[in-house]
Amino acid sequence: MPNSPLTPQRTIDELKDLRALTGNADGAQRVCWTDSWAQARAWLKAKLAELPVEVVTDEAGNLWATLRGHTDQALLIGGHLDSVPNGGWLDGCLNTLAGLETLRRIAAEGTPPVTVRLVDWADEEGARFGRSLLGSSAVSGSLDPDEVRHLTDKDGISLPDALAQHGVILDQMKKAGRQLKNAAAYLELHIEQGPVLEGLKLPVGVVLGTFGVERHAIRFTGQSAHAGSTPMDQRRDALGAASKLHLEIRAIARRHGGVCTVGSVQTRPGIVTAVVGQCDMTLDQRHLDAGRLAQMLAEAKAAGERFAHEEKVTVEWRRLWNIHPIPFHPALIELADAAVREVCNASHRLPSGPLHDAAEVARAGVPTVMLFVQSLRGLSHAKEEDTLEEHIALSVRALDRLATKTMEWIAF
């Protein structure tokens, strides 16, 4: 094929094209296992059809494009096209499209020293069913189908039924683990989704690892009663207990240097004239230290019991998902740091609070590292998410430089 040097502007243009194709005035609308996500996948496949690659979709719905090299040892570059509802124009898809541009550059230079594979992971966000990293966890082997079989979306559609509509069978998903055969390294570029790099006035940084996560659904059950005739001291107000816990988890996070978030609260009967008889809430807790994370969870559970007693209600906890802190590969961190310095003249190493598919690949034993590119105002998972175009271009060049260094590292 004709010579095609790396063209970061093409990545920027394709990001805008994808935004126009699958977004609206409220932001990106590529929730996984929906028609819009499938449309984005078809668009990506059309791009890949222009390259000398083999394209397959595995049992978990992940899309793989393979450029054969002189050896079967493989460099993996990953990302995800799916978004949260009303999401930003860069979260996830930058990873995939920057990887696509790097794949183009490598393919243009002939047969690479090692095999290079681009993967578009399915359902990184977990936006529809609450279970993040679904496709990558199937590949890593950490997915337990029985733990997600019961999940339903807001319309009552079950996860197995939604998967089946896209050709994925829940109980076959872990067969996708075969895709990691010969995987020698994994790279991922992502927007930071936080304010650190912007505060340091640096465009690109190197990720040390990802936070551990504990995610739970909590139900407080009291007694619904008339809002006008029930004395305050005789109420069994489920929302009262939930409200107290919501405030307490913020203090817990500050004490331990982690983060805790209540992202959803639903009350029943949910009318203005009734005391809340049932309150369901979600709790997301994250820390880079496993011991601290465990302590935060223990303190939250103890607080929940205390507030339930105070409000004369009961409380139940159900784990939605958890993952231990995942450190990235020391040698690849050094290569990534060198690549960023060569492109940007300066680098910074930082942990990742948000979840990424890279964590699942790393805990499967594949040497892994990530790059972060600066996020303006630290915003993500919102239509206001943005990154300067010149920083996007630098991040594509840094990923490409890292890919070259990693291929040499694998081949050595």
Summarize the structure.
The protein has about 400 residues and is of the alpha+beta class. The protein has helices at about 10-20, 35-50, 95-110, 135-140, 145-150, 160-165, 195-200, 240-255, 290-310, 330-345, 355-365, 390-410, and strands spanning about 25, 25-30, 55, 65, 75-80, 115-120, 185-190, 205-210, 210-220, 225, 260-270, 275, 280-285, 315-325, 325, 350, 370-375. Strand 1 and strand 2 (about 25-30) form a beta hairpin.
Which SSEs are present, and which pair or pack?
Elements: H1 8-22, E1 23-24, E2 27-28, H2 35-48, E3 54-57, E4 63-67, E5 74-79, H3 93-108, E6 115-120, H4 134-140, H5 145-148, H6 159-164, E7 183-191, H7 196-200, E8 204-210, E9 212-221, E10 225-226, H8 238-256, E11 259-268, E12 274-275, E13 278-287, H9 290-310, E14 314-323, E15 326-327, H10 330-344, E16 349-352, H11 357-363, E17 368-373, H12 389-411
Describe the overall structure.
- By secondary structure, the protein is of the alpha+beta class.
- It has two domains: 8-211 and 325-411, Zn peptidases (Aminopeptidase, 3-Layer(aba) Sandwich); 212-323, Alpha-Beta Plaits.
- The protein contains twelve helices and 17 strands.
- The protein has helices at residues 8-22, 35-48, 93-108, 134-140, 145-148, 159-164, 196-200, 238-256, 290-310, 330-344, 357-363, 389-411; strands at 23-24, 27-28, 54-57, 63-67, 74-79, 115-120, 183-191, 204-210, 212-221, 225-226, 259-268, 274-275, 278-287, 314-323, 326-327, 349-352, 368-373.
- Strands 3, 4, 5, 6, 7, 8, 15, 16 and 17 form a nine-stranded mixed β-sheet that branches.
- Strand 5, helix 3 and strand 6 (115-120) form a beta-alpha-beta unit.
- Helix 1 crosses helix 3.
- It starts with 7 loop residues before the first helix and ends with a helix.
